[in-house]
């Protein structure tokens, strides 16, 4: 398991020991460090369009729009005719996240969802598998007779992304196909709020079952909100799920406002921290915020410039490590913020997947903490029940860097790990 950033690792191969067993692609709950993600399996078609194109098909800009097969076929036909399509990618916010995690960690993850039982060349299922890391364990997918979902990402000249989604059989995931043992052995479980839209489909109950398993086995549970539209339509139900199950909540500033009523990211994060342990909030050109709790006696003051906003000196304790709120006798709220890496890419062609990239970095740090705790349980790093290996400030840097890589390319998933660190962080940091 790799840790975030460059590390000095000594490699050796004792000749007196027997040769290790060849690695397997399937996760072993008693031996591997991995995360589990539940998603609507979907393939994204990327296309560049005008605002007039969206109006023609009654597609609401900046939102995720469910369309029937007939409308999706008409959209695809016109995009093909006008040569607007740039590429096909495996998609889904959780699919993107766990793929990126496996690329960053160079380690296993598990995908829960559906997959076409009969995969043909050029089919959505074929594209999905081709564009997903081989480290992602797909052995627990449920076979379905039809196609997985198809999502058309429509990018307007201002860089805004809009989704037209044809579900196919992507919402047919049954609760009986949720493996409790696999979730029980995970470093974290991550899902999205999208299944809440489908009261008449089995995937909603499957998601709730998975959340219950993670809660039962005390597995850190991560939820990403999807879009503002989902939050508005399912606000009360979503808030109850967050209160009952969620440790880490990820969102953008629009989703945060829809959930809390606060347009200011700091105020929104502050309100959400009454219910969860960590908040990851991406705010576009403003950068991203990572907020949470730590024990008062364990808080560490930053050496970075102090920042103030709606909360004075909000980043004072950002060198602290995240802890569960319930584990803190005297909890302190911690807020960290970072501007876009290097000001952001010179040209942003596609913002799809940037938030997923940031979340994958946070998940990597959470799993690194799990790995280190399992390997060296008596380390001073685990003197308290920390949720992550690194500090709020350091995770901010890591998440920000991964988001930059996504924004700098024209695809929602990483094709490789990060290059060597450009900053001058001391190696000693990782042993604090």
UniProtKB/TrEMBL annotation:
Family matches, as NCBIfam families: PRK15074.1
Family matches, as HAMAP family: Gua_Ino_kinase
Catalytic activity: guanosine + ATP = GMP + ADP + H(+); inosine + ATP = IMP + ADP + H(+)
Gene name as annotated: gsk
UniProt binding sites for ATP: 282-287, 355, 400
Assigned protein family: Belongs to the carbohydrate kinase PfkB family.
Organism (species): Marinomonas spartinae
GO terms under biological process: GMP salvage; IMP salvage; purine ribonucleoside salvage
Binding site for GMP: 39-44, 92-96, 197
Organism superkingdom: Bacteria
GO molecular function, one term: inosine kinase activity
Domain Carbohydrate kinase PfkB: 134-296
Pathway where this protein functions: Purine metabolism; GMP biosynthesis via salvage pathway; Purine metabolism; IMP biosynthesis via salvage pathway; IMP from inosine: step 1/1
Top class in the EC scheme: transferase
Keyword Transferase: yes
E.C. no: 2.7.1.73
Keyword Ribonucleoprotein: no
Protein name: Guanosine-inosine kinase
Cofactor(s) required for function per UniProt: Mg(2+)
InterPro entries assigned: Carb_kinase_PfkB-like, IngK, PfkB_dom, Ribokinase-like
Primary role: Catalyzes the phosphorylation of guanosine and inosine to GMP and IMP, respectively.
Organism lineage: Bacteria, Pseudomonadati, Pseudomonadota, Gammaproteobacteria, Oceanospirillales
């Amino acid at each position: 398991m790799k840790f975030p950033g460059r590390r000095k690792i000594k490699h050796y191969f004792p000749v007196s020991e027997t040769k290790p067993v060849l690695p397997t692609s399937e996760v072993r709950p008693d031996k591997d460090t991995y995360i589990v993600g539940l998603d609507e399996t979907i393939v994204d078609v990327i296309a560049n369009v005008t605002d007039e194109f969206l109006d023609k098909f009654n597609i609401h800009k900046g939102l995720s729009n469910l369309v029937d097969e007939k409308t999706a076929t008409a959209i695809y036909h016109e995009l093909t005719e006008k040569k607007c399509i740039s590429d096909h990618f495996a998609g889904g916010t959780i699919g993107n996240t766990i793929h990126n995690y496996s690329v960053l960690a160079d380690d296993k993850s598990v995908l829960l969802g559906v997959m076409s039982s009969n995969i043909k060349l050029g089919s959505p299922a074929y594209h999905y598998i081709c564009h997903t890391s081989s480290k992602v364990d797909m052995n627990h997918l449920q076979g379905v007779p039809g196609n997985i979902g198809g999502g058309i990402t429509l990018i307007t000249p201002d860089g805004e992304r809009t989704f037209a989604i044809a579900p196919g059989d992507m919402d047919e995931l049954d609760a009986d196909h949720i493996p409790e043992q696999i979730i029980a052995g995970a470093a974290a479980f991550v899902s999205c709020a999208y299944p809440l839209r489908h009261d008449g489909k089995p995937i909603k109950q499957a998601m709730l079952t998975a959340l219950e398993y993670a809660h039962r086995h005390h597995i850190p549970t991560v939820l990403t909100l999807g879009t503002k539209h989902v939050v508005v339509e399912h606000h009360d139900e979503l808030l109850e799920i967050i209160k009952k199950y969620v440790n880490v909540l990820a969102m953008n500033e629009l989703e945060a406002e829809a959930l809390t009523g606060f347009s200011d990211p700091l105020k929104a994060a502050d309100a959400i921290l009454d219910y969860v342990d960590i908040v990851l909030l991406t705010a576009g050109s403003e950068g991203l915020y990572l907020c949470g709790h730590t024990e008062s006696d364990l808080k560490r003051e930053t050496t970075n410039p102090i920042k103030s906003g709606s909360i004075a000196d909000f980043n004072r304790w950002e060198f602290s490590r995240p802890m569960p709120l319930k584990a803190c006798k005297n909890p302190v709220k911690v807020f960290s913020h970072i501007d876009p890496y290097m000001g952001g890419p010179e040209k942003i062609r596609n913002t799809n997947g940037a938030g997923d990239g940031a979340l994958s970095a946070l998940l990597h740090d959470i799993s690194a903490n799990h790995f280190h705790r399992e390997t060296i349980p008596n380390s001073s790093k685990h003197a308290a029940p920390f949720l992550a290996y690194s500090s709020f400030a350091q995770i901010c840097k890591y998440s920000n860097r991964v988001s930059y890589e996504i924004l700098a390319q024209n695809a929602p998933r990483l094709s490789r790990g990060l290059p060597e660190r450009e900053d001058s962080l001391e190696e000693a940091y990782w042993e604090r």
